[in-house]
Design goal:
Elements (H helix, E strand, L loop, with lengths): L3 E6 L2 H8 L9 E4 L6 E4 L1 H5 L8 H11 L2 E3 L3 H16 L4 E6 L2 E5 L6 H15 L3 E6 L2 H13 L1 H4 L2 E3 L6 H6 L11 H9 L5 H5 L3 H19 L16 E12 L2 H21 L2 E12 L12 E10 L2 H15 L6 E13 L17 H12 L7 E3 L17 E3 L21
The structure holds a DNA duplex (18 and 18 nucleotides).
Length: 430
DNA sequence: TCTGGGGTCCTAGGACCC
DNA sequence: TCTGGGGTCCTAGGACCC
């Protein structure tokens, strides 16, 4: 049987802070978002006193004072480093794995990997890094997630490890899991399911597939299959190419003038284009957006966005800045209090694949086959093409994107190099 | 007073083409 | 009454995730 484990670090950011400050063990700890606005990580003790995930800091000040909660600004350099340590331990354990996020990884388990192995692995990670993890095992990614959820929710009972593939009463687990406890089911889908009389994972598992398909499309069908042990989500050992890069920030106090917005945008363009260069990519489209304060219902709201397809792909900060300024002027209206602004760089192309002239006509239709031939001619031996066209109609639909999606550089497959960019994020304040 | 930032995928509708 | 139909590309917006 296919067995996948999901290893998930517990309260990751808080746990990281504790590694370097052991006196925090057993005490309530929270870590804040970028601008110290929201609580994005909570220790068990902080959860126990009722601090909700994502809560604005100012709403919790009372509780924090009363219980002596330790509050930290986020320190992504630290978290990125701790993450790398955990991942490198995991990498040595299994033939294949997918780093899913800063604090999670899916592992492809060998046949002989028992629950005891998982417990030993958990102990090793704790001993070597100081980070507690939970491990869930299932026959699909979604079921591994579900198993992990159970391991975490019943830590005293499970010891942080739960193997759904060998559990005697899987239906019992399904029955006690509400649909929105499933990976990929949020508030809205849960509501839709409820409308069909589906309240638990067990209901969902035994639902009518045709009805699911009709009401929730391919997303629903995929969830349904994964839940029934039919894998639809592959383990992605190599992270796919980045589709876009975004940079945005909220203002501490609202901003009104074009000049201030321009200054903020200059910052965003610098950060985002730096990232694009580091990935070895070029930008073909840029979008700029503004937002007034959505929480102030009584203030006039204006949250425009605008995009432009560039004449020619670039990763130059100054070129992108010119585009950003132009776009900003088109959407800027005086008289509003802007709370946030940002940019998105999208339709990214590989720098190495780009040859001047080939992509410079974004508005016209492009004959992909012709370009493939031309690129291969320029790159050398046409008998052994470096570039191939991805087959159309693969499982992940080939529709809905630019012609660039049809490209695959063969050489990419030989450079399984994955660097996270967390190190680039700002240091914690104070 | 104070309310994060960065992603992915899917769908629907319009423009355009033959 | 009934208005061609099938395809691609682009964009906006929704939903979800960490």
């Amino acid at each position: 049987m296919n067995r996948i484990a999901l290893v998930d670090c517990n309260n990751f950011f808080c746990s990281c802070e504790r590694v370097f400050n052991p006196a925090l063990q057993g005490k309530p700890v929270v870590v804040l978002s970028n601008n110290d606005g929201c609580i994005i990580s909570r220790s068990e003790e902080a959860k126990a006193i009722g601090i909700p995930m994502g809560a604005p800091l100012h709403e919790q000040q009372e509780v924090i004072r009363k219980h002596g909660v330790h509050v930290f600004s986020s320190n992504y350099t630290l978290y990125g480093d701790m993450s790398a340590r955990v991942m490198s331990i995991l990498r040595d354990e299994v033939p294949a794995m997918e780093v899913y996020s800063i604090d999670e990884a899916f592992l492809q388990l060998p046949n002989n990997f028992s629950e005891e192995h998982a417990r030993a692995l958990r102990a090793k990670i704790l001993q070597w890094t100081g980070i507690p993890v939970c491990i869930g095992i299932g026959s699909t990614k979604l079921l591994a997630k579900l198993a992990n959820r159970h391991a975490k929710k019943n830590k005293a009972l499970t010891g942080g490890v739960f193997d759904l593939t060998h559990y005697w009463d899987p239906d019992g687990i399904m029955a006690e899991t509400p649909t929105d406890g499933l990976w990929g089911v949020g508030k809205n889908l849960a509501l839709r399911l409820k409308g069909m009389g589906i309240k638990t994972a067990l209901d969902f598992q035994h639902a009518d597939p045709a009805a699911i398909r009709k009401s929730m499309g391919v997303v629903g069908e995929r969830l349904f299959r994964e839940l029934n042990g039919i894998p639809c989500l592959a383990l992605e050992e190599m992270p796919p190419d980045r589709k876009g890069v975004m940079a945005s920030r909220s203002f501490g106090s609202p901003v009104e003038s074009l000049e201030e917005l321009e200054e903020a945008l200059a910052n965003h363009v610098a950060r985002a284009s730096e990232k694009v260069r580091r990935f070895g990519l070029l930008v073909t489209r840029m979008e700029v957006f503004l937002q007034t304060n959505r929480f102030k219902k009584d203030e006039p709201q204006y949250s425009p966005g605008i995009g432009i397809t560039l004449d020619r792909p670039t990763h130059s900060t100054s070129e992108l800045m010119i585009a950003a300024r132009t776009l900003l002027k088109r959407i800027y209206r005086p008289g509003y209090l802007y709370k946030k602004t940002g940019i998105q760089l999208v339709n990214l192309v590989d720098e190495d694949a780009y040859q001047p002239g080939l992509f410079d006509t974004p508005k016209s239709r492009i004959d992909v086959d012709k370009i493939v031939d031309e690129l291969n001619r320029r790159l050398g031996d046409p008998k052994n093409p470096v570039i191939t066209r991805a087959s159309q109609g693969t499982e992940r639909s080939a529709s809905g994107g630019s012609e660039r999606k049809a490209w695959k550089m063969k050489s990419e497959r030989h450079s399984p190099h994955y660097t996270t960019d967390w190190n680039e994020l700002p240091e914690a304040k104070g």
